[in-house]
Amino acid sequence: MPLVNVLINGRAYTIACDEGEEPRLRDVSQIFDKRVRELASSVGQVGDTRLLVMAGLVTCDELSEGLARLDEIEKEVAVLKEKLGREGEEGVSVLAEMIEKASDRLDAIAARIAPP
User: Fold this and answer.
1) Is 81 part of a structural domain of the chain?
2) Which of 7, 33, 63, 111 yields a CA-CA distance of 20 to 30 A from 47?
3) Is 28 helix (H, G, I), strand (E, B) or coil?
């Protein structure tokens, strides 16, 4: 089992991982290190253990929000697939309505970001 040395908030840790997972472990450790350093700059050095727990909780909270959003999107996709799967004119009408709504949203976004 390979060992990877990672740096989190200036401290070195040796972590075991499965063969071939070394690059991924390095990548995620850099992401976590960035989160820990950001948190440390806002709350100060509250001790390694507490800081790592706080960073882990913030990361899990973001993951939970992301998973909830993914679930919503998957439900929306299922509804769209069902609507698009209908045969005949009704399916075309639904598709046209979806395209029109998307166009309206894009127009609204463009209006907000366009310079005055």
Assistant:
1) no
2) 63
3) helix
Mean pLDDT for each consecutive 10-residue tract of the chain (116 residues)? Answer: 94 95 94 92 86 91 89 83 64 76 80 62
Same-domain pairing of 94 and 41: no
The first and second tokens of residue 96, run together, are: 């046209």
Helix (H) or strand (E) holding 84: helix 48-85
- For residue 28, being part of any structural domain is answered with yes
Number of domains in the chain: 2
> What b/e string do you get for 48-70 counting C-beta neighbours within 10 Å, with b at 16 or more?
eeebbebbeeebeeeeeeeeeee
Query: In this predicted structure, what is the pLDDT of residue 43?
Result: 87
Task: Report CA torsion sign: 13, 14, 19, 23.
Answer: positive
Query: What is the distance between the terminal CA atoms of the chain, rounded to a whole angstrom?
Result: 59
Say yes or no: 14 and 48 in one domain: yes
- Residue range(s) defining the domain that contains residue 99: 86-116
Model-wide pTM > 0.70? no
Q: Which residue has the tokens 């949203």?
A: 105
70 plus 15 within the same structural domain: yes
